[in-house]
Amino acid sequence: MGLPFHQHLFPPVKRLVWEYDMLREGDRVAVGVSGGKDSLTTLYTLTQLRHMIPVRFSLTAIIVDMGWPGSDWTAVVRLCNEYNVPCKIVPTQIATILFELRKETNPCSLCSKLRHGALNEAARELGCNVVALGHHSDDAIETVFLNMFYAGRIACFQPVTLLDRAGLRLIRPMLYVSEKTTAQVALKLGLPVVHNPCPANGNSKRQHIKELLASQAQQDPLIPKRLLAAVKNLWAQQF
Fold first, then answer.
1. What residues does each domain of the chain span?
2. Topology (CATH) of 4-238
3. pLDDT tens, 82-94?
């Protein structure tokens, strides 16, 4: 618990959870685990948070298998067992739908909808009332720019979203944490990060925005902090 990067992880997560009343007594939380560094760090963070805040909640890990050939979740399942977190693998054919049937050239939006639909359905079937996603601060900032550049509007997902039809509360407890921190945590803890085989990985609109923002941050390291402050103001207007 004394690892140095924890000062950039737990304090901001606890602050966000308190500010937005994310976790409540008796919550049954389904953590969406993609196998990437962000979702695995989110799983780790929530397992530790159970011992840090005076709120009792349970955790279940849900893996939405995209249907890529050769997918191997053995190491991720083993990690869940080490954390004493039940793990459910949901098989899908999302990869086939996107790239073979529909032949999508910009698949990210539809992919997100299909994955989240499968995740939410599995969460309900398992009796969960909360779904936790691993979006970090960089994701939020990039989303604002994506909406401005490609949709002509200023908008971002919220830290907490009520999915009335599904009867779920969607939370993003990592939004005050940077991608740099999630990468450090995953590396230091040796989390079993699964390679993303998606053909669009690294060649998407989001990646282009990420590179643009990174180039600006090289010129002025305070830019990410200012942009997150702007996103927080946007949340405050919408919450």
1. 4-238
2. Rossmann fold (3.40.50)
3. 999 999 999 999 9
